[in-house]
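Supplementary Note 2. Why include the ligand at all?

Several targets in our set were suspected to adopt different conformations when bound, so apo predictions alone were not considered sufficient. For every target with a known small-molecule partner we therefore ran a joint prediction. The input for magnesium ion is given below.
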Amino acid sequence: MQLLQVKNLSFQIGGQSIFDGLDLSINPREIHALVGTNGSGKSSLAYVILGCEGYTPTGGEILFEGSSINALRLYERAQLGITLCWQEPARLEGISVADYVNLGKASIDTAACLRRVGLAPEQYLQRYIDKTLSGGQRKRIELASVFALRPKLALLDEPDSGIDLLSLGEIEELIHSFKEAGASVLLITHREEIVLIADRASQLCGGKIVLTATPAEVATHYKSRRCTVCDGQECHHA
Ligand SMILES: Nc1ncnc2c1ncn2[C@@H]1O[C@H](COP(=O)(O)OP(=O)(O)OP(=O)(O)O)[C@@H](O)[C@H]1O
Ligand SMILES: [Mg+2]
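The joint prediction is reproduced in token form.
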């Protein structure tokens, strides 16, 4: 059974159609890359799957482990194991890095989670989140907190953005560690080399998934700036 199935999804925001007949499925323990140009709706799709306020579909169905989650609230979807690492890291302050990552649960190996994202535990465990942290450091802390949650489905919205010090190898290791921990990953990215670390990939264009195939096929199609929605013409959504 597929972990996530998005069927014939339609969604509008501010009078603008964002999705129109979108289909996407994610297998258990699959790293599934989602590519699309700026403004194509990648983040919006993650928000619709998570059930964020204002991101209620106007049509279609979202199934998680075979059951519809359309009527579930965000926290109920989180309890099922769906988690998002936001494209822009939280501006949260006044909480220790350790508390943020482990939510006070002694069973979580916080140091291991920090090491996963390339942060030295001895420098960060006791530290408070405040203005002195850079965007990249915040992003890593957020990735560590998502990893600590042991989600079934991790929606990672451009996990590499702002993290210039993480090498491609480190990002690959981090993404694969979600899979090793039993999770599936929706890996939202612009970068071809990140697409290539996935098991499968989909391209979003014109409110639809226009291609789901191997990462290499999708990366080639994405680069060609052509898509089926645009009828083989130069892609106006690119
Ligand atoms: N809350 C909102 N109100 C109005 N329009 C929105 C809102 N959220 C998204 N949009 C619009 O929906 C479209 C898709 O935006 P979205 O952020 O999902 O794209 P994206 O593919 O994640 O882009 P990027 O690559 O820049 O992160 C854009 O046209 C955007 O302006
Ligand atoms: Mg986005």
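Residues 42-43, 87, 157 surround magnesium ion (ligand 2) (CB under 6 Å). The chain has one domain: 4-230. Comparable summaries for the other entries are listed in the accompanying table.
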